[in-house]
Amino acid sequence: MNTRPTVIIADDHTLVAQACKKLLEREFDVIAIVGDGRTLVRKAVETKPDAIVVDIHMPLLNGLDAGQQICKLLPEVKLLYVTMNPDPELAAEAFKRGAAGYLLKSCAALEVLTALKSVLEGGIFISPIIMKEAIASISTESQTTPGTELLTERQREVLQLLAEGRPMKQVADILNLTTRTVAFHKYRIMEALNLGRDAGIVRYALKNHILSA
């Protein structure tokens, strides 16, 4: 009987995902590799892994929002974010949304294994290079990005897809909504965030790490 912990890898860069798989297979059972946040949520619900190694910047649904949805559906799953972004405030936001670990992609390979073992044992792991600043951000409520919490989960999904340059019809198809509903969500998003033009959606998404540059 296989008793090794099960892991899903979520990264839209195939070479990175495959390299991570090769590394983790030494001690873990990698049950799936996915390339976007929406597929990640669906696959996590289907397979109920012990842990997920996830990038923050992914298409269709970013890693933060995908992880937050997964935490609500599967609170026992451990989320380990592995990203190129050393911003301590981004790390703080990840932990506020349910992360158990936050690593930089520049870290040593063995650090990934150490981090994954740590979070599976109930610990928290943060890359040492950003640990001090991240902890300060986590404990300072004023660091929360203005406007972020004004949006619903669905509105954040619509925001990312629109910021990716997708037509409203395509957004509607992806989210299984009507075009009219998407248009309404867009209106409410722009109203809540005080955005005067469509370009403001892209700027907001980039500034708040919903979309990568």
UniProtKB/TrEMBL annotation:
Q: Name one GO molecular function term.
A: DNA binding
Q: Which domain of life is it from?
A: Bacteria
Please give one Pfam family short name. Response_reg
Q: Which UniProt keywords apply?
A: DNA-binding, Phosphoprotein, Transcription, Transcription regulation
Query: Which residues get modified to 4-aspartylphosphate?
Result: D55
Supply the SUPFAM superfamilies for this chain: C-terminal effector domain of the bipartite response regulators (SSF46894), CheY-like (SSF52172)
Note whether Phosphoprotein occurs among the keywords: yes
Sequence ranges assigned to domain Response regulatory in this UniProt record? 6-120
Q: Which InterPro entries match?
A: CheY-like_superfamily (IPR011006), NreC/VraR/RcsB-like_REC (IPR058245), Sig_transdc_resp-reg_C-effctor (IPR016032), Sig_transdc_resp-reg_receiver (IPR001789), Tscrpt_reg_LuxR_C (IPR000792), WalR-like (IPR039420)
Keyword Phosphoprotein in record = yes
One Gene Ontology biological process: regulation of DNA-templated transcription
Cross-referenced Gene3D superfamilies:
3.40.50.2300
Q: Please state every residue range assigned to the domain named HTH luxR-type.
A: 144-209
Full protein name: Response regulator transcription factor
Q: What species was this sequence derived from?
A: Occallatibacter riparius
